[in-house]
Design goal:
The chain has about 425 residues and is mostly beta strands. The protein folds into 2 domains: about 180 residues, Acid Proteases (Cathepsin D, subunit A, domain 1, Beta Barrel); about 180 residues, Cathepsin D, subunit A, domain 1. The chain is about 15% helix and about 40% strand. Strands 1, 2, 3, 4, 5, 6, 7, 8, 9, 10, 11, 25 and 26 form a 13-stranded mixed sheet that branches. It has a 5-stranded mixed sheet with strand order 12-15-24-16-23. A 4-stranded antiparallel sheet has the order 14-13-19-20. The longest helix has 17 residues. The two termini are about 25 Å apart. The structure holds 2-acetamido-2-deoxy-beta-D-glucopyranose (3 copies). The site of one 2-acetamido-2-deoxy-beta-D-glucopyranose (NAG) has 7 residues, from loops. InterPro entries: Aspartic_peptidase_A1, Aspartic_peptidase_AS, PEPTIDASE_A1, Peptidase_aspartic_dom_sf.
């Protein structure tokens, strides 16, 4: 992307952050992500179907697979990620033979991997895919196998839909063979200017209902990784931090200090766990009690139920700022040093974020002004409120996602010299 284009995108993101605080595959709506077919999308009466209760996914045993590679291929693999203004972390993967390069963001909140398709059966559906986007063309790949089954996934910014195809996916120095993925022919406009062309899902697919194994599942099944674990180190833009790293197959001790605090998963198909309590380091009389949370790479900040977020921000001394239908909170720079730590008690351990970790500054803000990076969301009646811990949390805590043991682990991310 050239510079003027980047500047335009930046402005878009600033506007977006003020109103939604979200990425194209936004968290705020992660909870309503549903997989539906293209046909159902076109059939309004059936749009709001209940998500069926899924059984827990038991991880496939690598040694049950006839396709498995030799054990020497099983080692942890680091994927270096580019950080776009703390709002998006992405990397290149390739699909097909010869390899077609495509930029993807990694999403812990969804399972399918999709890339823009060069094959657009209908001009009417083409509106959103254009310009700098890289596309996959099945006609120029010798390892492509047709599948054709439709896919659809809903994100905050809208719906991505198309059909499934099968091909080799290569990244992290290895090749996942015969991966089923989505070729997108409908994509929300917002993706058109984004640094990532597609999304690689690191969530849970429903094998029992005929969904395919995820890219990560297939890496394990094909013997490419020593363990069904992946971990993120996310750096801070504008600092001397080393590059961000997604480690596949385990953890990379270069990027964290101390022991992991583990929490078992509390939902069958999400990276969801229980927080015992959310508190502030200086207020003995203030605490938010037991709640559910997901660690979500679709979110740049921390999102929680509005009433609790309001109480928390008030207690922090943040000033409310109405932006459209969204209430945000701001701090002045002089406040930052005296703000308490935000503490999450998980499995009896304290995970503590300083104001430097939870306050957010966006390009274009008045100098010396910061947003509180704790943002409210209204939950529907009957919907379980779930906190989304996004990039700001993950920059503070190196996070491992352990699919085999159905747990998630947090350790203090290594701190490098920071410039503010
Ligand atoms: C590419 O995929 C589309 C949709 O499945 C299909 O119509 C087309 O024939 C495919 N191309 C090849 C070379 O198979
Ligand atoms: C987490 O799950 C494991 C295995 O099911 C169990 O042994 C352990 O006690 C659980 N830990 C907590 C804190 O519930
Ligand atoms: C699925 O996992 C959750 C959380 O670990 C557990 O409470 C539940 O009993 C499990 N359900 C089944 C069907 O194994």
């Amino acid at each position: 992307m050239n510079l003027p284009a980047a500047a335009v995108l930046l402005l878009t993101l600033v506007t977006v952050s003020a109103t939604h605080i979200s990425l194209p595959f936004s968290p705020a709506r992660t909870m309503t992500r549903q997989h539906k077919s293209v046909e159902k999308l076109l059939e309004p009466s059936r749009r709001n179907q209940e998500r069926p209760q899924r059984p827990n996914q038991t991880f496939p045993k690598p040694n049950q697979s006839p396709n498995r590679n030799s054990q020497t291929n099983a080692k942890t693999r680091d994927v270096y990620l580019k950080n776009f203004y703390n709002k998006l972390y992405f990397a290149s993967i390739t699909i097909g033979t010869p390899e077609q390069k495509i930029n993807v963001a990694f999403d812990t909140g969804s399972a399918i991997t999709w890339v823009p398709s060069a094959h657009c059966p209908s001009r009417r559906l083409l509106h959103s895919i254009s310009g700098i986007t890289k596309e996959y063309n099945n006609e120029s790949s010798s390892t492509y196998k047709a599948n054709g089954k439709p896919f659809e996934v809903s994100y905050g910014a809208g719906t991505v839909a198309g059909y499934r195809s099968q091909d080799n996916v290569a990244f992290a120095g290895t090749t996942v063979r015969n991966q089923i993925f989505g070729e997108a022919i409908i994509r929300p406009k917002m993706f058109a200017g984004s640094m990532n062309d597609g999304i690689l899902g690191l969530g849970f697919s429903n094998i029992d209902e005929g969904e395919e194994f995820t890219v990560f599942d297939n890496m394990v099944i094909q013997g490419l990784l020593p363990a069904p674990i992946f971990s993120f180190y996310l750096n801070r833009a504008g600092t001397d931090d080393p590059d961000s790293v997604l480690t596949l197959g385990g953890t990379n001790p270069d990027y964290y200090n101390g022991d992991f605090t583990f929490a078992n998963l509390t939902a069958p198909d999400r990276w969801q766990f229980e927080i015992d309590r959310i508190q502030l380091s200086n207020s003995k009389d203030f605490a938010l009690s037991k709640c559910q949370a997901v660690v979500d790479t679709g979110s740049s900040l921390i999102v929680g139920p509005s009433n609790e977020v309001d109480a928390l921000n008030k207690r922090l001394g943040a000033k409310p700022l109405q932006r459209g239908d969204r209430k945000l909170y701001t701090f002045d720079r002089y406040q930052l040093n005296s703000l308490p730590n935000l503490e999450f008690i998980v499995n009896g351990q304290k995970l503590s974020m300083t104001s430097r970790d939870y306050a957010a500054q966006f390009p274009g803000m008045r100098s010396g002004q910061f947003y509180s990076g704790i943002v409210g969301k209204e939950f529907q009646r009957g919907e379980t409120p779930v906190w989304s811990l996004g990039f700001s949390f993950m920059r503070t805590f190196y996070t491992q996602f352990d699919k085999g043991n159905r747990r998630i682990g947090f350790a203090k991310a290594s701190s490098f010299i920071r410039i503010y």
